[in-house]
Amino acid sequence: MLLHSLLTERFDSKHSSEELLQILASVLNAFPVACFLINSEHRVIHWNMACEVLTGVSARAIIGTKDQGKAFYACDRMVMADLVLDGAANNQVDALYHGKFRPSSTIPGTYEAEDFFPDFGKEGRWLYFTAARICDVHGTPIGAIETLQDVTARRQAETALHLSNERFKALSWIDDLTQLYNSRRFHEVLDNEISRAARYAHPLSLMVFDIDYFKQINDTHGHQEGDRVLRLIAEYLRQWQREADHLFRFGGDEFAVILPETNAAAAHTAATRLVEEWRQFNGNEAGAVAHGSTLSVGVTQLKADDTAETFVRRADQAAYEAKHLGRDRVICA
Does the fold of domain 173-332 match that of domain 31-156? Predict the structure, then answer.
């Protein structure tokens, strides 16, 4: 309303047209958001002070030219104002802004976007920008206006928050003692692997095991020594595993391995190698810290009618049977 009253008041004066342009230029220069105007020939007719600060390009250098693209990009190309002035369709805008734009919900033919400008400053800047056509009283386009805001700080804060959330999420998946994935992560990975195995009709096997007589190690040598054994077997598992395998510590002395692309026979072979190599490791001097511990392992392959619960239960039962039959062995269910 203030702008309307100012313009109306000046319009009645003797120098109305000239002063109207001066008032418009003054208003745009006082506007704290960077903006520029182009005419129907795509020539820059106004480049406000905020735009000078943002781009480092002076109004004197650019007004009267068609170089607005060079102010923002390494090559000479159309900017959003050029596109809306030409009445560009969504697919034409997308050719330059690749899904980073959206049409205005209030003004037809107007677009807004957010994009990274790598040539701004030392590390580039994120800008939020909008563009709209300017029409005469008959609705004929006579130019376009584009506004731009530096949103780099917000984008950096959002990125930092996302990374922080991702780190927190990753930490919530890790068992503090062994640095293996924990039971929470186990269920997430297992669900994903079951879905993938079903989708592609590929085999999936599961190995569950614990350390034989682990309670005696704790009772005899103390819990700190028991923790050393747990860390030792975790490190041993990392050396033993294949690249596609997923390692987990359930809690206590219970561990699990998800084996994608692996049938029951191959899983049994891998588990047998683990049991035998761990036993041999305990037989040498370096393995004394493990106090001669052995492993009881249950192995099973995913069946067509399995749920995650039945799959895990069958592997657990196989591990229990391995203990019942004398420990230090592998049972395949």
Answer: no
DSSP track, 49-85 = HHHHHHHS--HHHHTTSS-GGGGTSSS----HHHHHH
Token pair, residue 43, equals 């020539």
pLDDT digits over 8-23, tens only?
A: 444 454 445 566 667 7
Strands 254-260, 141-150: parallel, antiparallel or unpaired by DSSP? unpaired
Q: What would the mean pLDDT of 280-293 be, rounded to a whole number?
A: 66
So where are the chain's domains? 31-156, 173-332
CATH class for the region spanning 173-332: alpha beta
Q: What class has domain 31-156? A: alpha beta
Q: How far apart are CA 190 and CA 168, in angstroms?
A: 21
Is the model's pTM score more than 0.85?
no
